[in-house]
Amino acid sequence: MANAWSWDFWLAREGGSYHLFFLQASRALHDPDRRHYRAGIGHAVSTDLRHWTQVDDALVHDDRPAFDDIATWTGSVVRDPDGLWRMFYTGVGSPGDGLVQRIGMATSPDLTTWNRHDGPLLEADPRWYERLGEAPWPNEAWRDPWVFADPDGDGWHMLITARANHGPADDRGVIGHARSADLIHWAVQPPLTNPGSGFGQLEVPQVEIVDGQPVLLFSCLRPELSAVRRADGETGGIWSVTGDRLLGPFDTSKAHQITDESLYAGRLVEDPRGQWQLLAFHNRGAGGRFVGGLSDPMPVRLADGTLQADTTMAATC
């Protein structure tokens, strides 16, 4: 978009149309590093994952005082059994000075008009997860909810970018977990992965079954890798690891990097032909400058147990 930066995103599919929800902030801020605390959620529609028509924005920050009165961040959308669309998203607000992340919900009958649910649905549980000030980390990580139906029909699961409450400060990144029977009342669970795998945080998680194999997708930039990984010369980007089930176990110490930092916050989506594609946002360009904007679809496949993407197809939409 000419007048705004766009970055993290998620999708919903209704009939032959894909609905893209994405973070955006005005370029009038001049410095893209300021975008996070000005973020709202935009909305665009496509039939082919390549050509997008922007429509009315989905959600912006709430009035004060509220858990999301500063900005609304990354989430996911599912349709409940009664046909109502539910968007789960991250909120940051004046309670906590924008440093405490909580998860909220909005609903829509048509993917266009969204109405907030009162208050946050859930926040980090100190039984398992790090809270603000418990380690030299700049915020309380509890964001990027990815919601999906239990594969055995037993309610719903939420994956969350979170940090464990123990271990070296640069190596506490885990995939948080919550469960619900009705998409409204949620119970926080222990994390699905272990700290100590070399990541300070595992952002924008997603699980899908690709070529019959459960795959966990997440992203991490180089500054948030552990000191050990950085010393080994590893860089950031989009990562994946396979598991036995959609709920793991996933050994993220064995995660495989599928893009470098030029692409970030990847999402797996089936195209109109039923083929899996990877979408991402363009993160770093020449000189390390922030770019923003959605990639074209990149075909993916499993080879030797690892997810591989044809990143040569990632031209900006």
UniProtKB/TrEMBL annotation:
<dbReference type="InterPro" id="IPR013148">
    <property type="entry name" value="Glyco_hydro_32_N"/>
</dbReference>
<keyword id="KW-0378">Hydrolase</keyword>
<feature type="domain" description="Glycosyl hydrolase family 32 N-terminal">
    <location>
        <begin position="15"/>
        <end position="276"/>
    </location>
</feature>
<keyword id="KW-0326">Glycosidase</keyword>
<dbReference type="InterPro" id="IPR023296">
    <property type="entry name" value="Glyco_hydro_beta-prop_sf"/>
</dbReference>
<protein>
    <recommendedName>
        <fullName>beta-fructofuranosidase</fullName>
        <ecNumber>3.2.1.26</ecNumber>
    </recommendedName>
</protein>
<dbReference type="Pfam" id="PF00251">
    <property type="entry name" value="Glyco_hydro_32N"/>
</dbReference>
<dbReference type="InterPro" id="IPR001362">
    <property type="entry name" value="Glyco_hydro_32"/>
</dbReference>
<dbReference type="GO" id="GO:0016787">
    <property type="term" value="F:hydrolase activity"/>
</dbReference>
<comment type="similarity">
    <text>Belongs to the glycosyl hydrolase 32 family.</text>
</comment>
<dbReference type="InterPro" id="IPR051214">
    <property type="entry name" value="GH32_Enzymes"/>
</dbReference>
